[in-house]
Structure formats: structure tokens, C-alpha cells
Design brief:
Number of helices: 5
CATH superfamily of one domain: Pleckstrin-homology domain (PH domain)/Phosphotyrosine-binding domain (PTB)
Shape: elongated
Largest sheet: 8 strands, mixed
CATH class of one domain: Mainly Beta
Strand order of the largest sheet: 4-3-2-1-7-6-5-8
Strand content: 15-25%
Low-confidence stretches: 206-211, 232-236, 238-249
Order of helices and strands: EHEEEEEEHHHEH
CATH topology of one domain: PH-domain like
Number of strands: 8
């Protein structure tokens, strides 16, 4: 199971729940969202349709026309999944939100394939957990080292920039001091200004008269800095962490792996239950 795309469903929405598991928890959420759909229908609003994409990476809720991802629920965050055994229509799952850490219950009207979707999510969860056990543990130390190196490189680049700025400020102060220190009305021979290390600043264009020659031959031309590749303090090309997939190795990789392990250990509970409890449910 790499990816399993399912036809369009009506998406009743999502609502916050207090617990990550439980039949009563999802039953209350389904009743709440069914009632909200009933109100919207009475006002002439249609229930939006969505597509589901289930894989070992998660459950994606897509817009059926634009294919834009509306929700991306990672499998290790899904803790409970249930379908309606009475009419084979309603199915729901509880997922922990990645930003707020709240438990949200997502409810769908699938018409006739609720049980199939529940089983598919269960299979994807099992495969994802197996993949995590096979590869996640082995790569922990390597990923931590890469993340640490990337963080250190960024710190060095920041320090390098600060040092360059300080050197530039000192050079500017030195030039101002030299200008104000010259006697008024006196003319001094022009000479190249030096930096704080008594070095003549590099100039891409130098007069021929100031450049000595040997055996009547001109030295090779100095390339313009505008055509050079920008290099850091050590002469190396700047390191771009984003070009090598820094997003795959976030600095908090250990906490991310711990979170995944905790989610998989909690497990995914699949359950068939009855959501139609009164006449209002059947009319919704």
C-alpha cells in the first residue's frame, strides 16, 4: 500500500474532542456535526465534497477539483477510527492536530464504503509503524548529527557576517579619522588607503602605472569580483542547507521521532459502531 485514492465524499467537518479514543467520544462528535449539517441544509448550504488519499504517510483530505490539500493527517497522530455499521455511510477518525495538539474528530459521509475506508486506514497505520521500526531507529544518530552540523554552519555564517560588518565599520571610522586629521589647505600626495591591517584594499581595476611588470610582460588580468562566486571567511562556497533537504532533518529531530514513537505505541483502534441514534440522525 503506497497510496490509495478514494472517490469523493461529503465532509461534515471536524470538531474538537476531549479524548483520543472512545465510541462515545466519536458518537457525540458525529451527532454535533450532523446537527450542524442539518442547520446548513435548512439555510440552503450544500455539504462540501472532498477526496481522500490514504498512504503510509497519512490521510490527506483534498479538494476534488483543484486537488489542493485541505488537511494532512499523519498516521501516527490518528488514534481512533470508526464506521457506522447500520447504514454503511458515516465514518470518522480522531487525529491530534500538529499545531494546537488538540484532538480533532473528522466526520465523512461515504454513502456505501465506510467500512472499506476504516480498514484501509488501519492497514496504512500498520505498514507505517513497520516502516518506522525498520528505518527510523537506525537513522536517529545520523539525522541528529546532520541536524547539529547544519545548525553549527548557520551559526558560523551569522558570526562571519557580523565580523565582516565590524571590519567595515572600523575601516569607515579609520577613513573619517584620516580625513579630519589632515591639515587645512595642505596637499598630500594621494596614496591608496589601507585597512586596519595596513593592507591596500583590493581593487578590480588598477592603473597600469602602479602595477610592476617583469621582462616587459603584463601580469594576468585580475577577474572582477562581480563574476566570482561569493565565498565565506575560509574560502569555501556558502553552504545552503535548504539545497540538501534541511526540511528532512529539523533541529528538533529527536523530539519529532519521540512524538512518532509515542503515537505509534498508542496504536490505532478500529471500531464498528452505531451512529444513528434518533430520527434526527436519519434525516441529516
Amino acid at each position: 500500500l503506497i497510496s490509495h485514492e478514494l472517490p469523493s465524499f461529503q465532509f461534515l467537518g471536524s470538531t474538537e474532542v476531549e479524548q483520543p479514543k472512545g465510541t462515545e467520544v466519536v458518537r457525540d462528535a458525529v451527532r454535533k456535526l450532523k446537527f450542524a449539517r442539518h442547520i446548513k441544509k435548512s439555510e440552503g448550504q450544500k455539504t462540501p465534497k472532498v477526496e481522500l488519499q490514504i498512504s503510509i504517510y497519512g490521510v490527506k483530505i483534498l479538494d476534488p477539483k483543484t486537488k489542493e490539500v485541505q488537511h494532512n493527517c499523519q498516521l501516527h497522530r490518528i488514534s481512533f477510527c470508526a464506521d457506522d455499521k447500520t447504514d454503511k455511510r458515516i465514518f470518522t477518525f480522531i487525529c491530534k492536530d500538529s499545531e494546537s495538539n488538540k484532538h480533532l474528530c473528522y466526520v465523512f459521509d461515504s454513502e456505501k464504503c465506510a467500512e472499506e475506508i476504516t480498514l484501509t486506514i488501519g492497514q496504512a497505520f500498520d505498514l507505517a509503524y513497520r516502516k518506522f521500526l525498520e528505518s527510523g531507529g537506525k537513522d536517529v544518530e545520523t539525522r541528529k548529527q546532520i541536524a547539529g552540523l547544519q545548525k553549527r554552519i548557520q551559526e558560523l555564517e551569522t558570526e562571519n557576517t557580523e565580523l565582516k560588518n565590524k571590519v567595515q565599520d572600523l575601516e569607515n571610522q579609520l577613513r573619517i579619522t584620516q580625513v579630519h586629521g589632515s591639515p587645512a589647505g595642505s596637499v598630500t600626495p594621494k596614496s591608496p588607503s589601507t585597512d586596519i591591517f595596513d593592507m591596500v584594499p583590493f581593487s578590480p581595476i588598477s592603473p597600469q602605472s602602479s602595477t610592476p611588470t617583469r621582462n616587459g610582460t603584463q601580469p594576468p588580468p585580475v577577474p572582477s569580483r562581480s563574476t566570482e562566486i561569493k565565498r565565506d571567511l575560509f574560502g569555501a562556497e556558502p553552504f545552503d542547507p535548504f539545497s540538501c533537504g534541511a526540511g528532512d532533518f529539523p533541529p528538533d529531530i529527536q523530539s519529532k521521532l519521540d512524538e512518532m514513537q509515542e503515537g505509534f505505541k498508542m496504536g490505532l483502534t478500529l471500531e464498528g459502531t452505531v451512529f444513528c441514534l434518533d430520527p434526527l440522525d436519519s434525516r441529516c
